[in-house]
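User: Predict the full complex structure for these chains.
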Amino acid sequence: MARVIKTKVEIEGRVHEETVVVEGDEPAAWEEGREYSVVGKPANRVDGRERVTGAARYTYDVNLPGMLHAAVLRSPHAHARVLSIDTSEAERLPGVRAVVTRDEADIDWYGDSGKLFDSTMRFIGDDVAAVAADDLDIAHDALKLIKVEYEVLPAVLSIEEAAKPGALEIHPRGNIIQHNGHNGELYSRGSVEKGFKSAEVIVEGTYRTSTQMHNSLETHGSVAMWEGEELTIWESTQYIFGVRERVARALNMPLSKVRVICEYMGGGFGSKGSTFKQAVIAALLARIARRPVKLMLDRREENTLVGNRGETVQKYRIGATRDGLITAIDLEAMTGVGIYATWAASVAGPAQDLYKCANVRTLTLGVRTNMGSQAAFRAPGYVEGMFGLESAIDELCEKLGMDPVDFRRKNHSDVDHSSGQNYSSKHLLACYDRSLELIGLGSGAALPVRGSLPSNGPWRRGMGLASQTWGGGGGPPAHALVRINPDGTVEVHCGMQDIGTGTKTALSQIAAEELGVPLDSIRFRLGDTQKAPFGPASWGSITTPSVGPAVRMAAEDARKQLLEIASFFMETPASSLQLVDGWVTTEGRPEGRKPLTEILDEIGDYMVTGKGYRGPNPTEPIRTWGAQIAEVEVNIETGQVRVLKIAAVHDVGRVINPKGLASQFYGGILQGMGFGLTEERKVDVRTGQVLNASLDEYKVPTIADTPIMLVEAIDKADTLANHIGSKGSGEPPIIPTAAAIANAVYNATGARVKELPMTPRRVLAALGELRDRQEGITSN
Amino acid sequence: MARVIKTKVEIEGRVHEETVVVEGDEPAAWEEGREYSVVGKPANRVDGRERVTGAARYTYDVNLPGMLHAAVLRSPHAHARVLSIDTSEAERLPGVRAVVTRDEADIDWYGDSGKLFDSTMRFIGDDVAAVAADDLDIAHDALKLIKVEYEVLPAVLSIEEAAKPGALEIHPRGNIIQHNGHNGELYSRGSVEKGFKSAEVIVEGTYRTSTQMHNSLETHGSVAMWEGEELTIWESTQYIFGVRERVARALNMPLSKVRVICEYMGGGFGSKGSTFKQAVIAALLARIARRPVKLMLDRREENTLVGNRGETVQKYRIGATRDGLITAIDLEAMTGVGIYATWAASVAGPAQDLYKCANVRTLTLGVRTNMGSQAAFRAPGYVEGMFGLESAIDELCEKLGMDPVDFRRKNHSDVDHSSGQNYSSKHLLACYDRSLELIGLGSGAALPVRGSLPSNGPWRRGMGLASQTWGGGGGPPAHALVRINPDGTVEVHCGMQDIGTGTKTALSQIAAEELGVPLDSIRFRLGDTQKAPFGPASWGSITTPSVGPAVRMAAEDARKQLLEIASFFMETPASSLQLVDGWVTTEGRPEGRKPLTEILDEIGDYMVTGKGYRGPNPTEPIRTWGAQIAEVEVNIETGQVRVLKIAAVHDVGRVINPKGLASQFYGGILQGMGFGLTEERKVDVRTGQVLNASLDEYKVPTIADTPIMLVEAIDKADTLANHIGSKGSGEPPIIPTAAAIANAVYNATGARVKELPMTPRRVLAALGELRDRQEGITSN
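Assistant: Here is the predicted structure of the two-chain assembly.
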C-alpha cells in the first residue's frame, strides 16, 4: 500500500520539500556497537583495478564508429550583439559534417534569459556556433572560417561596479539576484541592534575570497548518439537523471527516449551538477550529421564556461559579552555569480548555523557580471563564509583574551536556531577535543598563545583552528534494486553516479553487509538512466545518506526473500535463519548451515529482486560537524606560508568505509589549502578575459604542497537521520581548512590576512600593515 | 512474504519442473468480453521504424573502435584426430592480433564429450583454431597459414548405418541417445497389442522427412568486449541469460561480470536457443588481443555448424474400428541428431497427444552421425511427426471411407491422456469448422472426395487437412519491471529478447492496457542481461504466456501505486480512481479527472517502479490447437506441386496483437511449405560435406511461392492457463502445413508421397508407383 509523505531535504545549504511514496516498512536502524562484517571496515575501491588499468570508460574514452568531433565557436567579447553569422565557408571545408547556429537551433536555455545560441553574447566564451568534423583539427579550422559580425557592447566586469545603483543592466533579470522581489537574500532572527547593545566587545572586519576554479581532472564533455528516435548521451556529469531531463526538454523529447550514461567520472566538485550546453549541441550535430558526435571541453573552456566558486566580499560585525558569549552577528556579503547563475551560494550559512546566538542578521547579494557563471563548488558558500566567520571569531577571541577552543565550547548549541529543534546528532565538541589530541596538544588543551611556538630564522610557527558545519543529511528520492544471480553474485542497480568519491564502494559494502555475502560478490551498477531506477545527483554530500538506505532496504528485501526460500528447502522457519558470509545458517545449529548457492540451485533461473527506496527524513535538522587545526610556518621575509600539519576531525555519522572517508578528508583539505593559499582566477579587467585558465598558470596544490594530514571521524551512528546512521562526507573536510590556516598564520605572526588566497604578496602586505600599526602604536 | 511453489512447465514437448517464488497476489484474469483499449487491437510493430530504417542495431551491426574480425579454422574431415597444429606462420602475418587453439584454451564444451577445440574432429566444420585480425580477409589468409596434421578416421554419415548393432562408435556416449539407460525413448499407455486386436482396420506406413536448415536471415555471431574483468557479449541469440550462463561457465567467471546484449535479432527458429562456441572464442581472442572481436558465421557455417531439423524415419501402425474409433497407435522413429546433440526432438508428440486413443506406444531413437548437430527448429519433432501421423490417419480415413474431418471429430478428446485431466482449454473442433469455412467449404462440410475437384490439363486439384497440437503454455520463471518517468512515459524492463516475432509489441500492448496509458507511451527494454531481471529464452512459443503475465503484474503494481498517489493529491479513495488513456478518472465524476502527468509533477523525481513475475501454472495441461486445410494443384506430368491456398485456424488463447499473430501464421505456413516441398540438406555421402549450404543452392520458399493464406485465431481467453489468457503462437502454424499439403496432393492425385520434401521427382515416383499398382490391380 503506497502512501505519500512530504519531507524536508537540505541540499547545498537550501531546504527543499520532497514527496516520498512509502511502501512497506523501512528497516530498523543499524544498531550502534553491533559487530559488522563489512560496514565500518576499510575497503579498497571496488573499481580500483578498472580505474588504474585504464579499463574504466570515462566520457573522454567513449569512441564510437564513425564518431565526429565537435568544437564550438565562442564569443571573443564579454558583451556583444551578434549581427550576422556566415557559416558557408566552414561548411565547404572537407571533413566538416555538420554546422549548427541559432538559425538551425532556436532553443531556450536559460529560461527567458538566454538561448542555446543567443543573439546577445554576455561573456567571453558564450556560444555562437558549433561544428562537427572528422577530427578536432578540422573542426577548429572550420571555426576560423565562420564569419561573425558583432556589435560590441559595454561590459560590466566587477561585482562592485555591477552592484552600484544605476549600473548598466547586463542581464534581463537585473544585475543582482532577487529573492521575494528584493535585491539579495535577507535572513534575520532576534534583533542584531539589541544584540550589539548588550555586547561588551565588538569586532568588525571585511573578508574577501577570490574566484576558485574547479579544475576537475576530467573536463566537461558529451558524446551523443542517435539510434532512430532514441538518443544516448555519455556525459561527464554528477546527475545523469538531471541531464536526461534537461536534454529531453531542450529537444522536446519524451524522457523514455533519452538515455544518459556516466559510469566513470573524473571529478566534478559541483560544477557537473547542472547540465551545460555541450550535450544538446552534440545531439543536434549528431542528428544533422547522422553520426555520433563527441564534444569535450578543453581546459580553457572548462575554466571559463562551466562554473567557479565566485569571489566574495564579507563584512562581519560580531558582538560578545566580556565573558565570551556571542550576542550578535551581522553579515553583509556579496558574491560574484557570473552572468547566468540564478542563485548565489550560501555564504551566510556559517553565520546562521555555527554558533548559539539569538541575534543574527545576514544579507547576501548575488551579483552578476559579464563573466562565466558560478556553479556549486564543494560546500558552496560555506567554505567562503567560514573563512570570514572563523577569522572574525578568532579576532574576537584575541580581543577577549580567550582561548579560541574555550570560546567555541562556550557558544556551542545542540539546538538548531531556525527550527528550535535539537539536531539529529551533533558531536562538534568531540571534534574539537579529538583534533587537539591529534595535533599533539591533548584533549581539552588550549591552543598555543600567539607567537609562542618556536621560530626558525624568518620562519614563524603557529596553529589555528576553525569549525565546520554543513548539511549532508540527504533524503529522498533515491531508489535501488538488488538482483541475486543464480551463482550467488549480486548486482545492485541505482541510477546515481560515482563521481570519483568512492560511493560505489561504500554502497557495495552496505549491500554486502545487509545481504550477508562477501563484498566481492557485489557488482554495483550505476551511471545509466536506462539500467536503473532514479538516483539523485551527486552533490550536497547526500549520496551515502540518500542512496545508502535505499540500497540497504533493497538488500534487506532480497535477503528476506532468500531466507523465506531457504526456509522452504531447509524446512526451518525463516525467522530462525540468517545469511552470513554467503551461508544460510540456522540459529544454534551450526552444522545445519547451507551455502546460499545451494539454495539458489534449487530455484534455478528464478531471480530474486529486492527493491528499496529512501524514506522520509525525520523532522529533526540533520547536520555534519567538524574541526580542523592547522599548524603552519610563515616566512616573514618572503610572505611564504607552509602548511606543516592539519588535524581534521569530522562528525559525519556512521563511517561505512574508513579508507574512502580518509580520501575524502585528504582531498577536501588539499582543495581547501588551494583555496586558502594559491588558487585565484585572474581576469584582464579591460576585456574580461581569464588570464590563467590553464593548469600551468592556475595553481592547484600538488603533492609537494601536501602537509601531514591527521584525519579522523567521530564514528557515531546518527540513527535518527536514517537507518544506516551515516551522514555525508564529501564537502565537510574542505570547509574549515582555509580558515584554520588563516588563523594559524595570525597565530604565527600576529598579522591577519583578510583576503584569500594568502599569497606571499598578501601575507607581506598584512605583515607590513601590522608593522605600521605597531610602529604607529609605539610612535604614539 | 515469499513462498516457494513447484510447478510444471512444458517447453518444446518436454515437461520441466520449475520453482516459483510467490510474493503477493497475481492479478485476476482478464475477463472475456470486456472492452479492451489496446489488447486485441491490431498494432504496428513498436520498433518497426528502427527495423526498416536500419537504426536497429543487430549483432552484425555492432562495430566498436579497434574491433578485430575473427574467423575459425574448421575440420575438413568428418572424423579425424588432430596430431599437431602449427600457428607460427599465421601469427607472423601482419594484421593478425590473436590466435587461439586447444593449447591456449583447454575448455570443456560438450560436458565430458568434447572440448571447445577438441583433439578429435567429429564432423566437417569442427573447430580447430581461431584467428582475430584487423580485417576478415587477413583472418582468412591467416587460417590458410595454420598447419594442421590430421589422422583421418572412418566416419559414419547415415543414421541407418549409425544405428546398426556393432556400428563404429563415433561419440563417447554411443551412437544412440540413451534414456534411463536404454537406447531411445519409449512411451507407452494401455496396450497396443490389445488395441490392434480390437482393430478392424489397420494402416501401416513408413514416412520420412529430410534435414531442414534454419536459414535465419541473420547468421549466428558474437562481438566480445572486455572492460577490465568484465565481459560484454553482443550475441544473436534467443536466450541472453543462457548465453551469460554458458560463457561464464566456460570462462570460469562470476555471472555478475558477464553481460549479454541482443536488442535486435534476425530470426533464430530455435537454432539460437543454445549457445554455440563463437561467443567464447570471440571472448578468448579479445582477451588475448586486448581489443573487441567480432565473430559472425557466414552462411555456409550457419548451415553446417549451428543446427538443423534432423531427418526422420517414422514407422506408423494405426488401428481403428470400422466406425472410425482409433484403437491403437504404434510408432517407431529414428531422428538424425548429428554429432553432439544430447536430445532428440519429440517426433512422437503428435502420436501421443492428438487423438483419443487408449493404446499408444512410441519408441524414438536419436541417432548420432558425423554431421553437424541438430538444434531445436520451430516445433521440433511435431512438424515431422505430424506429417507422419496425419498422413497415416488420412490413409486410414481412405480405407474406412470416412471424411477426414468427421474422423477427427470422432477421435477428439478434451482429456489429456498422460495426466487424465481436462486441458485448460481446447477449441480444436472450432478450428476444424472455421478452417472449412475459410477454405470455402462451409462449417461442418466434408472435404472433397479424392479427385473430385476440377482438373486443368495435367494439373490435378486437391484439398487436404491436418491438425495441430503443441504446448505453448509457458510458465515461470519470468520477471518484469515497469518504471514510470516523470513525464508519464513508461519503460518496461525484461531480460528477454524479441527474435523478430514482435513480442516487444504484444508485451507493450499488455503494459499499456494494464496501466491505462496510450501504447506510444511505452518503451519496452529487452535484450540486455544487465538492464533487466530474468526473462526466459524465446523458444517453445512461451514468450507471451510466460512474460506477458509478469509484465501485466508489474504494470498493475505500478498502476496501483499511481492511483494511491493520485488518491492523496485528489483526495479521493484510490479504489474509486482509474487510469484511462493517461488520465486519472474518478468514478461518476468525469469533470474531476486529472492528467497522469499532473500527478507525476506532484511527486517530482520520485519514480514509481512496479515489479511483476510469472506465477505458477495450474495443474491442468495447457496446449495450443489448430487445423490447416491446403488446396493444391499437382502437375502429374512434371510432378510439380503448387499450393494455391491455405486456411489456417489456431487456438492460441487470447489474441494480444492480431496483426503480429497473422505474421506468425504467415511465416509458419511458408516455412512449413518449405519443409514440405523444397527444403532438403544434401550431403556428399562419401565425405559428409554439405552440398547446398548456401541460399542459392538451398531452396527456401520465396514470395513467388506464397499462396493465398487465410489465417485466423480462435480468440478465446484461456483464463485457467494464466491471467492474460494467452497461449503461445510462434510454433503452432508450422506444424500441420506439410501434412495438409501431402494430404492435398493425395486428394488431388491418389498418390501418397511418404517422403518430404515432396520434390517433383518424389511426386513423380509416387505417381509411378500408383500407376504400377493400379496396373498391377487391373492385370490381376
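The mean pLDDT of chain A is 96.
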